[in-house]
């Protein structure tokens, strides 16, 4: 795969903040994640920031960069717990990192929430811009939900700087599966249950109604 560009791109006025914190985040994620996930997370930042531009949202780009770059860290074995959703693992890793940089706790909470909710559709868009735009970036790069809202030039500039693999759609599904297959119960009630079901035809996902009916309540 092509290595990420060493130059910080400027796409329609959006760039990665040139700060010590963002440089440290880049170094940490580059050393922690695969090239696939690093490039994906970088694209998520740009598409999220561009979505903020389109929506007229005022967002702290350092915090958005932190949330988008850490959003898939929970898929990496070193940061993957045996019993928490991978989103929470990533959020916890981001919190630990930002606390080591003495970032304001309120700002850390926004980053944590943005990562924790990035696979929960229909909610983040109504929350703080860091939360809303983290999900917006993910939905663009993985699902292509807002593909036509970006010009060809913008999409091509982001992908040129941080390339998609030739088989990115299948590669990212495989990366999701590899990161969660050891704890399938954590996918109950969220979209990652579809990933397990796609890879394991005999997988029986949790059922919300069954949980209600099998509770200890008499009625």
Q: What's the arrangement of secondary structure elements?
A:
Elements: H1 20-32, H2 35-55, H3 61-70, H4 86-100, H5 105-116, H6 129-143, H7 152-161, H8 168-180, H9 192-199, H10 208-213
Helix pairs in contact: 1-3, 2-3, 2-6, 3-5, 3-6, 4-5, 5-6, 8-9
Question: Would you mind describing this structure in some detail?
Answer:
It is a single chain. This protein is an all-alpha fold and 219 residues long. It has one domain: Orthogonal Bundle (Hypothetical protein af1432), CATH 1.10.3210. The chain has 10 helices and no strands. Helix 8 crosses helix 9. The longest helix is centred in the N-terminal third of the chain and has 21 residues. It starts with 19 loop residues before the first helix and ends in a 6-residue tail after the last helix.
Keywords:
219 residues; Hypothetical protein af1432; mainly alpha; globular
Q: How would you summarize this macromolecular structure in one to three sentences?
A:
The chain is mainly α and 219 residues long. The protein is 56% helix and 0% strand.
CATH class value: Mainly Alpha
- By DSSP (H or I, 4+ residues per run), the number of helices equals 10
Give the quaternary arrangement of the chains.
Answer: single chain
Helix content: 55-70%
The largest β sheet comes out as: none
Number of strands: 0
> If you compute it from the alpha carbons, what radius of gyration comes out, rounded to the nearest whole angstrom?
18 Å
Instruction: Give the termini distance in whole angstroms.
Output: 57 Å
